Amino acid sequence: MAFTADADGRCEVFAWDAATGRARQVTDRPRGTLHGTIDRDANVWWFDEDAHGAGRWLFQPFRGGPDLPGLTGVPTGTPRGLAVSDDGTVAMGLGDGRTTTVHLGRRGGSAREVTRVDRHATLSGITAAAGLLAISGPAGSAHAVTVLAADGTPRAVLSGAGEHGRLWSLGFAPTAERDELLLVREDDDRYLLASWRPETGIRTYPWCAFDSEITARWYPDGGEGGDEGRTVLIREDRHGRSTLHRACLDTGTLTPVPTPPGSLLDAAPRAGGGAGGDVHYLWTDTAHPPRMHSTAGTALPALGTVPGRVPGDHRDLWTPTPDGPVHTWLSLPEGHGLPERQAPERQAPERQAPESQAPERRSAPPPVVFLVHGGPADHDRDAYDGVVHSLVASGFAVARVNYRGSTGYGPRWRRAFGAGVGLTQVEDLVAVRADLIGRGLVRPDAVGLWGTSWGGYLALLALGTHPGLWQAGVAVKPVADGVAAYRTTTSALRALDERLYGGTPDDVPEAYARSSPIQYASHVRAPLLVVAATRDAKCPPGQVRGYLAALRAAGARHESMWLDSGHDGYEGGDHVAVLRRAVVFLDRELRGTQGGRGTQGGRGTNGAYGPHRDPKTPPADRRGDSGRVRTTAAAGTGTAEHTERRTAHAEGHHPQRPARG
């Protein structure tokens, strides 16, 4: 296998040989490496990118050797997908900010351009015999999936618009015996498995339906009934936890694959294991950092991470809202947990949230930090988070809210933006704040916000629209000015904004103005720390500077911190620097300490609110600036790997959905 892991404070690509039980580090780049995969001939691939995210695909034989270009004669660009066929034919998608180009050639040989499209698109697969390619566009568009012949001739255009709902491509079957593309289709409030063949078109499998987002991949071999590759591994992410299922498309059977409760950041069937054989998966829950597991007990690499269980009492609760209950993951410091009989419900309600209670407390409630997830199409899950660990160990409670628009709760929840972009989500943060205070779980006068990217946007918007509810805020690489961000961000994110707002800033200026944090900068009252990056293409630095200028003009108390990086930094030093600065800032503002060192301030640190612990800064997760756990890209096929950078377990494994979070 190939996997990414920490290497002296950077994310790098490693190769693992199950026969010897040894791993070796493949890449060693000054700023780290995130995109990595392995092909059917066991060549290890990675994307060699510069500080702006542009670069080229390289590969190396499994047991080592020189770094070789995937294809020659290809200009640098941003990664838009990689696929390798059984005979070593390589297809790669590259973006240049405006267009997406797909190149084809023999591994290590010269490339030819197959197609160029004037929009953000992603190469999502190649057939085993290299006869067909699949390109994904916006899932709700008329060109959700385009199938091309190897010479670039369109063979089929599959629509995700209209009555049948959105459509996502997951890659071709890993067999030369037939050309079959795995799909997920949204149907009303469900997600259905489907497939496409040239001779039959799209076939939907109604027996394989789920009420929340799924991703899937073909078993590499050993399909049942002698039809190799007709078995699929499905991962569902529902209400913040993951489950695995094995689906046989020929017999119409769906079988659970047992895994512990928690989140599966990735899962893959092992080649040679057969349809019911070995599945490797990366498991975590809030109290345990990620660990590799095998359903057959195969020894897998031990990850260098925090051993054992992390501190805190970790639970989930539900808060009623007009569109249904909002799910929150709550982590309380040691000594502040609730007796089991009084704890918030761990299971989702079918119709409504459990009634709020005011349980007896073991000790006085702690200050709380709302850690707001990005996306917007993402969600917080029962998974280890380096920031949660650091905050809880420092004496804070942490609330992670899956507001409306989050994944994991079905299509209707994803579409619930009734109060407006951002404003709907802020309403949910406000409701959960009131619920936590009403239950007596947190201090009402010590509530902070911390978000990265889209989460940073929501933190700024909440601070400006409800200034009396928050005592501190941290916004890391945020959208701070909606119009300026639209004008200067990537084409993919401009398209995302147009879908969210219903048009461009010229089309619907009132909608952008109403949802833009800069419009409310003069209302901000809580102390604010803003962290930005000088080479951020998704949340560009110019719009952050404009917001900071608005804060200065309003006399709002704030601090700023600038990183010499892009939006998706892979260096551990940056993560630790942000983590340390933010925890000390929140410690000072929410508990009145001087420099975060436990000096007694206005609110007190060793009195009524329990013992104060100096902020600790264990190494943050290297996959996101907030230290948040993110899922890795699952392979679209057994014959080729798709490694488009994205956050999280996407709805139907849709690589074409851009995200700021």
| Widest sheet, order of strands | 27-28-30-29-31-32-33-34
- Secondary structure tally, helices: 9
Helical percentage: 10-25%
Distance between the termini: 28 Å
User: What do the pLDDT scores average to?
Assistant: 85
Any low-confidence stretches, pLDDT <50, length ≥5?
A: 222-228, 340-361, 595-658
The number of distinct β-strands equals 34
SSE class: alpha+beta
Which sheet architecture does the biggest sheet show? 8 strands, mixed
Overall radius of gyration: 24 Å
* Shape, principal axes of CA atoms: globular
Estimate the strand proportion: 25-35%
List keywords for this structure.
single chain, 661 residues, alpha+beta, 8-stranded mixed β-sheet, 4-stranded antiparallel β-sheet
Quick summary:
The chain is of the alpha+beta class and 661 residues long.
List the helices and strands and how they pair.
Blueprint: E1 2-7, E2 10-17, E3 22-25, E4 36-38, E5 44-49, E6 55-60, E7 68-69, E8 78-84, E9 89-95, E10 100-106, E11 112-117, E12 122-126, E13 132-136, E14 145-149, E15 154-158, E16 167-172, E17 181-187, E18 190-197, E19 201-210, E20 214-218, E21 231-238, E22 241-248, E23 253-257, E24 263-269, E25 279-285, E26 288-294, E27 313-319, E28 326-332, E29 368-372, H1 386-393, E30 397-402, H2 411-415, H3 423-438, E31 447-452, H4 454-465, E32 472-476, H5 482-488, H6 491-501, H7 509-514, E33 528-533, H8 541-554, E34 558-563, H9 572-591
Parallel strand pairs: 29-30, 29-31, 31-32, 32-33, 33-34
Antiparallel strand pairs: 1-2, 2-3, 4-5, 5-6, 6-7, 8-9, 9-10, 10-11, 12-13, 13-14, 14-15, 16-17, 17-18, 18-19, 20-21, 21-22, 22-23, 24-25, 25-26, 27-28, 28-30
Helix pairs in contact: 3-4
